[in-house]
Specification:
By secondary structure, the chain is mainly alpha-helical. It has 3 helices and no strands.
């Protein structure tokens, strides 16, 4: 059974992007169909578009300012994520070494006594 599992997994992983890629154009076609079904653009449509664009730009600017304020107020971390993992790994290594010394120390004495 395990003999057929790897080829099946390989086939599914190779076909997954193509299936996903085929879904995207279908959504675009539906969007185009809904746009075609809408009535022709009216004269005030460009004005509405520019108003909406202006509002979006203002909101974008406001959100950027909020982000800058939040980032300036947040304290900087002492260590980065990579440095934390390095410190944890080093600690585990040192602790394992010391534990190994403590555990094997008794065995060495027993071997010399015999």
């Amino acid at each position: 059974m395990h003999r057929f599992l790897f080829p099946l997994l390989l086939a599914v992983s190779l076909l997954a992007p193509t299936v996903h890629a085929q879904e995207a154009p279908a959504a675009d076609v539906e969007e185009q169909m809904s746009d075609d079904a809408a009535p022709a653009a009216t004269e005030n449509a460009p004005a509405i578009d520019t108003l909406a664009l202006q509002r979006l730009r203002q909101e974008n600017q406001r959100l950027r300012l909020q982000l800058q304020e939040a980032q300036s107020q947040a304290p900087l971390p002492l260590l980065s994520e990579e440095q934390k993992w390095f410190a944890v790994g080093g600690s585990v290594g040192v602790a394992s070494f010391l534990l190994g010394l403590l555990v094997t120390r008794g065995r060495r004495r027993r071997q010399w006594l015999n």
